Amino acid sequence: MRESSLEKMEGEKRPAPYEGLFADGHLILWTLCSVLLPVFITFWCSLQRSRRQLHRRDIFRKSKHGWRDTDLFSHPTYCCVCAQHILQGAFCDCCGLRVDEGCLKKADKRFQCKEIMLKSDSKALDAMQHHWIRGNVPLCSYCVVCKQQCGSQPKLCDYRCIWCQKTVHDECMKNSLKNEKCDFGEFKNLIIPPGYLTSINQMRKDRKTDYAMLASKLGKQWTPLIILANSRSGTNMGEGLLGEFRILLNPVQVFDVTKTPPVKALQLCTLLPYYSARVLVCGGDGTVGWVLDAVDEMKIKGQEKYIPQVAVLPLGTGNDLSNTLGWGTGYAGEIPVAQVLRNVMEADGIKLDRWKVQVTNKGYYNLRKPKEFTMNNYFSVGPDALMALNFHAHREKAPSLFSSRILNKAVYLFYGTKDCLVQECKDLNKKVELELDGERVELPNLEGIIVLNIGYWGGGCRLWEGMGDETYPLARHDDGLLEVVGVYGSFHCAQIQVKLANPFRIGQAHTVRLILKCSMMPMQVDGEPWAQGPCTVTITHKTHALMLYFSGEQTDDDISSTSDPEDTKETE
């Protein structure tokens, strides 16, 4: 009896098999939920984000505004529609509107962007009124009425004219200001007014080309500026600079050369009075050469009277040409864009020699055409060309890794140090023959030869003048002469750059001829390197370029090495 009762009790306590399976199922279900639910939420958020991005892009594509989205505004910002404080959203890089993502469509319909041309041509040049937008005025701006600071309150307040950049308080805004004629402000001599383009369009329909009479209404000081920026140069600042220039100027004056080649962009000069246009090139020395080649094409087309003067905003790595012209060794946003425009207005015109470099391969005189380059800065064969060649090869493989000017110079230092140990260019004097103005020159035991057109080389070194008690005339970039120097190796180049040594000065000449008798050697023209076999290199004068020289930060030596500004009115 006891045994049967114990068995019965044990049978009652023992769980049924299906109850254990039910508990395991619950555990599996909760595990799946805990794993799949975050995945589903992440997928759903990603889908919604993609839809919002597609919606934004659709608005951007159809809009007349130059919308750009940002994840974080750099200073306190308020939506122009709902007046709420926003951290992220979209902004127009032409008129400066800032809106929340949800208000983007309303803002696009409610607010008008800058017009590059007026709709009506009646009294076109005199019909431009202020175009006011409310809120987000620049810091440290002052009201044109009461002269007190604007934008100091933590809300959407005060007005700014998107053309003349004048600001005014809400309470100071009057009907007279709303209907007042806009004078385009501080940079009126650089801006192409929308009314001017409207009048030009009408004149072309009437087959008239007397633009000077139309431009006379804008004053004798009117020198319209065209911006040509390379958004991929150096530190990748070009994209941001394009927007800042569009806000201060007419957007039709601002071009990204990666989208609109300089040859097409410079055709805007043909709508302007003779010898009036100026161009600001934002990029490295390679971008400047690209633009100057486009200017030469204008000469070939018979457009000499429309050729502009060229200024430089250095965004590249070396920037030796911009340094020679007084624009500095590199721009990193240390001065505002408005100050850059002021510097352009103050700059003086000078000439720059441009040279033809012809490379004829040995043994292929009747089979291949000689390669031709245009030189603005320098030509070299030897260790500095080898460093440039190695740098160029690695940048082509991973361009995103070479967006920092400091990093780029560090890579140059690495390859220079490597060549100090390997000495790939030794015994150059046994491999080449050098002729200056037809006379052969005996060379010492060199590793490199550099032919200079400008004063600076290697990222800021005045190579020809050197250092010490030896007196040499300052190198000029407009005298039709080339300076030829030699270096003993990569270590010697480094010593020259830190002013511990001088180069071996070979001489000056109007024509340089270099014969590479054997083996492959690295060569470069203005930072564009290649490996070259036996050949003959001939450098002759090609033409002059009209440049702008800024003397604001230069020494007396630099100023004395520039040309007389009055000479630049002559063209060749």
UniProtKB/TrEMBL annotation:
**Role played:** Membrane-bound diacylglycerol kinase that converts diacylglycerol/DAG into phosphatidic acid/phosphatidate/PA and regulates the respective levels of these two bioactive lipids. Thereby, acts as a central switch between the signaling pathways activated by these second messengers with different cellular targets and opposite effects in numerous biological processes. Also plays an important role in the biosynthesis of complex lipids.
Q: Which GO terms describe its cellular component?
A: cytoplasm; membrane
Q: Which family does it belong to?
A: Belongs to the eukaryotic diacylglycerol kinase family.
Q: Which PROSITE patterns does the record cross-reference, listed alphabetically?
A: DAGK, ZF_DAG_PE_1, ZF_DAG_PE_2
Task: Please provide an example of a Pfam family that matches this protein in its UniProt record.
Answer: DAGK_acc
Q: Where is the Phorbol-ester/DAG-type domain?
A: 64-113, 129-182
Q: What is this protein called?
A: Diacylglycerol kinase
Quick one: which pathway?
Glycerolipid metabolism; Lipid metabolism; glycerolipid metabolism
A GO molecular function assigned to this protein is: ATP-dependent diacylglycerol kinase activity
| Protein location | Cytoplasm; Membrane
Topology relative to the membrane: Single-pass membrane protein
The transmembrane segments are: 27-47
